[in-house]
Amino acid sequence: xxxAILIEKDDAGYRSHLTELDEAQLPEGDVTVKVEYSTLNYxxxxxxxxxxxxxxxxxxxxxxxxxxVVEDSSHPDFRIGERVVLNxxxxxxxxxxxxxxxxxxxxxxLIKPPAAFSARQTMEIGTAGYTAMLCVMALxxxxxxxxxxxxxxxxxxxxVGSVAVALLARLGYTVVAASGRPAxxxxxxxxxxxxxxxxxxxxxxxxxxxxxxxxxxxxTVGSHTLANVCASTRYRGVVAACGxxxxxxxxxxxxxxxxxxxxxxxxxxVFCPLxxxxxxxQRLARDLDPALLAGITRExxxxxxxxxxxxxxxxxxxxxxxxxxxx
Length: 327
Ligand code: NDP
Fold this sequence. Notes:
By secondary structure, the protein is α/β, with parallel strands linked by helices. The protein folds into 2 domains: 143 residues, Medium-chain alcohol dehydrogenases, catalytic domain (Quinone Oxidoreductase, Chain A, domain 1, Alpha-Beta Complex), CATH 3.90.180.10; 139 residues, 3-Layer(aba) Sandwich (Rossmann fold), CATH 3.40.50.720. It contains 9 helices and 14 strands. Strands 3, 4, 5, 6, 13 and 14 form a 6-stranded mixed beta sheet that branches. The longest helix is centred in the middle third of the chain and has 23 residues. It is globular and about 60 Å long. It starts with a strand and ends with a strand. Bound molecules: NADPH dihydro-nicotinamide-adenine-dinucleotide phosphate. The site of NADPH dihydro-nicotinamide-adenine-dinucleotide phosphate has 33 residues, from helix 1, helix 2 and helix 3. The site of NADPH dihydro-nicotinamide-adenine-dinucleotide phosphate (NDP) has 33 residues, from helix 1, helix 2 and helix 3.
């Protein structure tokens, strides 16, 4: 038997609870993992609370990421005792996920984490941090360099935002952090933001084009915020869009794209090809200051995950939440 969060949906409604499951109930897969840590990402918050249509099969064990040790494997690339990390691939949505003491997965979904990181550190980073790295890599791929000017990060005090600020600052960029929490200004400056601005500058309907300011941006918020970020991005600047914390809509015009040559780069971490995700993890080992990681992380036990999922969606959590599934 193993402990897990289980989401059920039936005539009695949508509910998440901590329970014990039998290993025989685990889904099909060629690698069984003893999970050590998982995390709470925004998507896990939506899944656990039922506030977003994340879960597409019931009953479901949530948790879009996990770190642990191989307990059993018929996959040629993974041996018993090896450390593995998983992000995405529909895990926690259509396949049982990481908020449990055991997971059975397809070996092709797993990566071997950089030796520099402990299992806890990989989940301090989690899908949020790995997505932040994909956003930074997209800016680089499209030619944004530190000397080009300021980079804006929206939703900056959240998980993706915090890691994006830390990564960009370490790589020499001048980072402007947009946040709705004035009390987080000191935290964001510790991570490397040069300036912290109020998110109300972006979250209402704006003009098709605004004063050119950003050489690049990482947007975790979507909706009017993303539209206004594109409108204020400089000629040939790049916006990496990965999130929808304000909304899924994009009430924008094509003006920034056709008049200023702005590039809107979409970021998906879930089905990102293996080679790119391995590169992202190698880059995280090189470009993220591990001393900052512990400072942006709160650790909870599996038994607290349901309560903390509500806090995450309420926007009251700063940085990352790592889940020790053994308690
Ligand atoms: P968090 O909840 O940790 O952070 C989201 C942040 O967005 C909040 O901390 C807050 O920042 C800001 N925010 C929240 N509500 C609003 C609002 N109504 N208007 C403006 N800003 C708001 O989530 P994560 O960092 O884990 O994820 C961020 C987004 O990225 C989510 O939408 C998530 O689904 C998405 N995501 C996408 C991935 C992909 O593969 N594309 C992978 C991972 C995440 P502040 O307090 O600083 O204003």
